[in-house]
Structure formats: C-alpha cells, structure tokens
Amino acid sequence: MRILMVGDVVGSGGRRTVKKILPKLRHDLALDFVVLQGENLAGGFGLTLETVYEMIEAGADIITTGNHVWDKRDIVRKLDDPSFPVLRPLNYPPMNPGRGASAEGPVGVVNLIGRVWVGEFDSPFAAIDDLLAGDWAKGKPIVVDLHAEATSEKVALGWHLDGRVSALVGTHTHVATADCRILPEGTAYVTDLGMVGGTESVIGMHVEEALDRFLTGVGRRFRPVENGPMRFNSVMIEVDDSTGNAVSIERVDRELEL
Ligand SMILES: [Fe+2]
Ligand SMILES: [Fe+2]
After folding, report:
1. What value, to the nearest 5°, has the Cα angle with vertex 124 and ends 121 and 128?
2. How far apart are the CA of 52 and the centre of ligand 2, in A?
3. Cα 73 from chain centroid?
4. Nearest-angstrom CA–CA distance, 7 and 196
5. For residues 115 and 131, what is the distance between their CA atoms, to the nearest angstrom?
6. Which of 51, 54, 153, 165 is deepest in the core (most CB within 10 A)?
7. What are the φ/ψ torsions at residue 62 (nearest 5 degrees)?
C-alpha cells in the first residue's frame, strides 16, 4: 500500500497548490491513501468546513491537525461526527470535542501533539501506548502524525514506536527534514514533513510581518503568502500489507508558481 503524508497546508495559497499537485500525484504515484496536515488551512489558522472539503475533493482521505485546531469555531461541533474526516490530537484532554485516531478507512491514522515548547498536554507516548494496547486498527497499516516543535521528541517517539506502527512523521515546524529512514523494526520515520505554502516566507507567513515581530517584539497580524513561488512538501511510504512494516519512505517535494 502506498501512503502519502502531506505537510501543513498554509492558507489559500497552500490549498491552491494542493489542488494543482495532489490529483496528479495520486494518479502518477498510484497512491492508495493520503493524509494531509490541515491545521493552517483557513487563512493560516484553523480549518473551516469549506477548506476541509476542498482538500478531500483534491485527493486527501483524512486530515490531521494540531495546536491551531480550535482557531475557527465552525468545525468544532463537526469533530464529533465519526464520518467527518478531521482528527484532533489524541492526547488532548478527553472532554475535548473530536477524536484523535481513526481506523474506519484502510489505514489506521493517529494524530498526536508534542509537549516540548508546545503546551501542557497528556503524554503522547502514553496516549499511543494505550491505543495500541488493544486490537485497534488490527490488520491495517498504522500511520502517526506527531505535531511537535522539538526534533528530539519526534526522534524519541520514533524509537518508542518502532515495529508497532508503519510510519511516524512529524509536523508543525513547516520546515522539511532530510532524515527519512526505516527504523530497524520496520517503522518509516521522518522528523518533519514540511509544509505546502509560499517559498518566500517565514514558515508560510509574509516575511516582513514575521520579521517585525522578531525585530520589535510587537505582535502584528500574520498573513499567509498566497502567490509567487510555492512549495509542496510530503513523503510517500510504501507498506508491506502482510506485515504492516514499511518497505520504503521517500520525500515527494514539488515547486510551482502561483
Ligand atoms: Fe502548522
Ligand atoms: Fe502547529
């Protein structure tokens, strides 16, 4: 089975880039399943129903999120609907709306959030241990998105899960890393998928606004870059259906001009 995992899609420029690239990739790479990180879909902050369905129509099967999941309120109630293809981190407080894992489709998908420089959540390590202790997603490949800032936390979870899931990928930094590998017991790993957003930006946002915050310490409103050179960052993981182990993981990165 071939699974594509797409990095944080930022704003309308990111969405337009996905619409131009993903349908063709889905065909050319004979992809079976696509997981897309959508926490920045709507104006860079959060998701709306419209932006979610736009991505599903472009070829995503399920959307993972992170710290920006609550930014746009209109999806919050939908998150409890098991047919709504959006996850929120599994290790958020249990009374939060939504769910952090889905095994309804051909792939088990888990969304976790890190704790180092992100926030005070339950342990992502303990949360996934609990989930995997039972028969959850038995017989299906399992892929995990750890939405986290610290590279060390992501590397550590990779070792912790090696041999128990088909793939662990990191998201949130919006900067793609070059460390795709298969760990010794068969789990595909990469520290960060990267993003789908403007190349001439600070992690998808206009340079001058982001730079100003560092230079002056005064917060300005960030706006996503919506045109010009755009990058599409993702990785493709091939899984041996009989064992659930990863056979390969490779970066699938593209650029275009909007
Ligand atoms: Fe993000
Ligand atoms: Fe994030």
Report:
1. 135
2. 17
3. 20
4. 6
5. 18
6. 165
7. -150, 150
Distance CA 55, CA 59 (A): 6
Which ligand has the shortest distance to the CA of 193?
Answer: 1
- The Å distance, Cα 204 to ligand 1 centre, comes to 9
Give distance in angstroms: CA of 46 to centre of ligand 2: 10
Other beta carbons within 10 angstroms of residue 217's beta carbon come to 7
pLDDT value of position 220? 79
Ligand nearest to the CA of 118: 2
Residue 129 makes CB contacts below 8 A (sequence gap 6+) with none
68 is catalytic: yes
Q: 52 in helix, strand or coil?
A: helix
Ligand having the closest approach to the CA of 233: 1
pLDDT for 13-29, tens place per residue?
999 999 999 999 999 99
Query: How many A from CA of 243 to the centre of ligand 1?
Result: 32
- What does the DSSP 8-state code read for residue 197? E
Domains of the chain, CATH where assigned: 2-257 (3.60.21.10)
Catalytic residue among 68, 147, 172, 174: 68
The rounded distance, in Å, linking the Cα atoms of 126 and 108 is 18
What is the rounded distance in angstroms from the CA atom of residue 222 to the CA atom of residue 207?
Answer: 9
* pLDDT tens digits along 134-161: 999 999 999 999 999 999 999 999 999 9
pLDDT digits (tens, 9 = 90+) for 91-139: 999 899 999 999 999 999 999 999 999 988 999 999 999 999 999 999 9
* Alpha-carbon distances of 49 from 54, 110, 186, 251, rounded to whole Å: 9, 21, 36, 29
